[in-house]
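Side project, low priority. Logging it here so it doesn't get lost.
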Amino acid sequence: AGMFLKDDSLILLAYMDLGKSFVELEQYGYALQYALYALLLAEEADDRAQAEANWLTGLVYAAIGNDLALGYLDKAYAYYTANMLQTLNGKAILFGQQREYQQSIAVFEEMYRLCHLARWKGHQLPIMLNLATAYNLSGRVDEGLAMMGRIDSMAAGSDFLHSYGILYQLNYGELLHQAGLDSRAEEAFLSSLSLAEEAGDSSSFFFRN
């Protein structure tokens, strides 16, 4: 038994289980005590353990009507949202590779919704660019152009276009071409080429079948 008590991960799990049990029994004083113990131990643990300890602490505070609940729940939500986004991104890309564009769009739209709720502008913009690409590949050109317009307005003042400018201009050019706006499409393609030459990456443009 002494060896188990020296294992902080097992003690953390015990505190979490006790906290949850006391929540079910509506004994919130004890529940908060063990939640805070868990939160303290979780500082030396991995991100998932910290998220679960924050979730339990927020849950207890919410049950007793304490405004501190929101801060703890937000920390837990950020962890779960980030990990969910990674999983969803893999699914969306796989659907796109399989040319199941409607399913890919549905997943990217869910990712966009999650980022919007979490107010993660930095994550939203790349997802929006992927959405515009998926709209283009599925023939939903008007929606793709609308999305590019939203990216343009949201990206002002950020470094997004510096990081994703080549892909942005390429996608924009393809959508404009699909819409029959060839002069504007040519401008976008030339802009992407110019950005690629500046970055020393023009080789990737001579090329795609």
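Brief comment: Residues 69-97 form the longest helix (29 residues).
Revisit when time allows.
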